[in-house]
Specification:
Layout: E1 5-9, E2 12-16, E3 25-30, H1 54-67, H2 72-75, E4 80-81, E5 89-91, E6 100-101, E7 106-109, E8 116-120, E9 124-130, E10 136-142, H3 144-148, H4 151-163, E11 170-174, E12 184-185, H5 187-196, E13 202-204, E14 210-212, H6 214-224, E15 232-234, E16 259-265
Parallel strand pairs: 4-6, 5-7, 11-15
Antiparallel strand pairs: 1-2, 2-3, 3-16, 7-10, 8-16, 9-10, 9-11, 12-14, 13-14
């Protein structure tokens, strides 16, 4: 059964499924420790769009990818995106002239040695892995807007349309996000979620405030498009409740770093075992 385990190397920490490595697939959800950024981005901020110093961000990314075993040439092919809380998925079949993809919230590839990264702090980071008939991966940023727009389903569709991977071939990993005890929404947004996800549990609060589980909505989206429930792995960590290990936009008043969801296909003869 797929699962996420926590790994520590020095001060760096990430969550991964090492059972994917014999298939030549590397995934990681990073924690915030072990990097070079100063407060309020301390320390392993992976986003270059939050006001942190570019040199610190570049070094943080290098540190994480090196710890994961990616060589310098592969690190140089890292692709990320300018996330806009939409539902657009971009295919990366070869290194792009600009490795920072504009106006996208998900990236897919079936090409080895192209690491893909989305940056998150409360939103749901998702990694989709297809092991057959053709290996392929997707990284997805799903905030409340993207969750309502079912970006996870769009990424599953992209893997199928681009690489022939059906929902039955896919394992989905959900990283840390703001949990159901912390994610408060107003009555209007709660109603929109109730309409889109009728089975999604909501906890009512005072003044029309409700709490809901973004990850549960993402999981329902994945099930609705045919991903088996037992192939959906939720790390189950609330970013707002664990500031020592994770960035949280809400808990840290909007000025903070971002952890990452990173995936890379390795050459098929490189097991990284």
């Amino acid at each position: 059964m797929p699962e996420l385990q926590r790994f520590v190397q020095g001060n760096l920490t990430w969550h991964s499924d090492r059972e994917l490595l014999p298939e030549g697939i590397l995934i990681a959800f990073s924690e915030r420790t072990g990097g070079r950024s100063a407060a309020p981005y301390a320390t392993l901020n992976l986003s270059d769009r939050v006001g942190d110093g570019p040199a610190a961000v570049a070094e943080n990314r290098r540190l994480l990818m090196s710890a994961l075993g990616l060589d310098e040439a592969t690190q140089g092919r890292l692709h990320s995106c300018i996330q806009v809380h939409g539902a657009d998925v971009v295919r990366v079949d070869e290194p792009l002239a600009d490795p920072v993809v504009a106006n996208a919230d998900a990236l897919v590839t079936a090409t080895p040695n192209i690491p893909l990264l989305v940056c998150i702090a409360d939103c749901v980071g998702i990694i989709l892995v297809a092991t057959g008939p053709r290996r392929a991966i997707a990284v997805v940023h799903s905030g409340w807007k993207g969750t309502l727009a079912r970006i996870a389903a769009a990424a599953v569709d992209a893997l199928h349309e681009s690489y022939g991977a059906g929902p039955g071939d896919i394992v989905a990993y959900l990283g840390p996000y703001i949990g159901p005890e912390s994610f408060e929404v107003d009555a209007q947004l709660a109603a929109r979620f109730a309409a889109e996800f009728p089975g999604l549990e909501q906890t009512p609060g005072a003044g029309g405030i409700a709490r809901l589980d973004l990850g549960a909505a993402v999981s329902q989206t994945l099930r609705d498009v045919g991903v088996a429930a037992e192939r959906i792995v939720n790390l189950g960590v609330d970013t707002a409740q664990d500031p020592a290990h994770f960035y949280s936009y809400r808990a840290q008043d909007g000025t903070t770093g971002r952890q990452g969801a990173l995936a890379c296909l390795l050459p098929e003869d490189d097991s990284h075992a």
